[in-house]
């Protein structure tokens, strides 16, 4: 994994411009596969949709800061596992062991996944919280209607 | 750590014998910071307490859940009445995490002792309580609870009379623990925070802890607040706070309400009549 942060922003965008169309299309399909794996695994573990959504945002945020060489599908797979595992830890009550995440074609050791988790955390500066509209709901219902109307509005919205 | 020089102890880590030290920043920037260090391994992790993680193999679980949640919370916590996380270092090799928080001139306990004359100004008490409630309200607004509020982790800057809440995993002080927790409930909650706010308010008004003694026990609380029927409420409060204005007395009784479900919430407390004549210069 290389760091984009270490090079200047203009250099980083040069990298993107000079990269061949083939690289970009490889990358697009790799991302699609990663998303597919995340959504399937979400269903398998019975995670909330928000958890899958969150892991995709981690995935994209990571790749906006670090790059993965074209063709390294294992790295994309490993990143998907780390992102879903981190999202599950943020959102879910029951979090599986790292070894329970099954990835097609590769068999990652737990300590490798853990290292990837840490790479993601440092790239994302440990800012793993997610802001959803629900976070603001109480605030606005309080502002507009006072506490009494809160329960009603929230239950209607949910 | 060359940047910081050790400068006194401020408390003890939760579930650990390790002390938390205050450091003075070297060089021109000055000011004090609090440094919290821990290993990124569930067994040694001071942030993860007594849960199933502790018994699991660290490699099997990866980055511990509680560490992850707490640090990501600290990262987004930006409020003028909450102590800021200045920097976070992570050393990959030895899994050592270091959190550096800003500090203030002193904690509330020291302030009440060393600045007795200033601290007895009831207008200042009101101003400080308002800031305390704002900080606590911010915790609660993002779905978090502090869990260990007491005068040692409420910090004061003397010059501008600013108050900031320190939020690191320190030992909870039994004297500020809500009755439902003393009676066996284990989860820290926003309501329990509000009870602690009530105790701190009382301490600011009388300049001594509300519940005295080595360990507050449920008898002390019931002695003051009455056994848990709502009829005999508010018990002896007006005797304990002879100098507190009626609105203040009303607020304190709502903060110390025995039933956590009926205890006043932070955002409601901020709208209480006690603060009606408060003009904050900001």
TrEMBL record, chain B:
SUPFAM superfamilies: Protein kinase-like (PK-like). It comes from the Eukaryota. The keyword Chaperone does not apply. Keywords: ATP-binding, Cell cycle, Cell division, Kinase, Mitosis, Nucleotide-binding, Phosphoprotein, Serine/threonine-protein kinase, Transferase. InterPro entries: CDK, Kinase-like_dom_sf, Prot_kinase_dom. It catalyses: L-threonyl-[protein] + ATP = O-phospho-L-threonyl-[protein] + ADP + H(+); L-seryl-[protein] + ATP = O-phospho-L-seryl-[protein] + ADP + H(+). Residues 4-275 form the Protein kinase domain. Its EC number is 2.7.11.22. Gene3D superfamilies: Phosphorylase Kinase, domain 1 (3.30.200.20), Transferase(Phosphotransferase) domain 1 (1.10.510.10). GO terms for biological process: cell division; G1/S transition of mitotic cell cycle; regulation of G2/M transition of mitotic cell cycle; regulation of gene expression; regulation of meiotic cell cycle; signal transduction. One of its GO terms (cellular component) is cyclin-dependent protein kinase holoenzyme complex. One of its GO terms (molecular function) is ATP binding. It is an enzyme of class 2 (transferase). Belongs to the protein kinase superfamily. CMGC Ser/Thr protein kinase family. CDC2/CDKX subfamily. This is cyclin-dependent kinase. It comes from Morus notabilis.
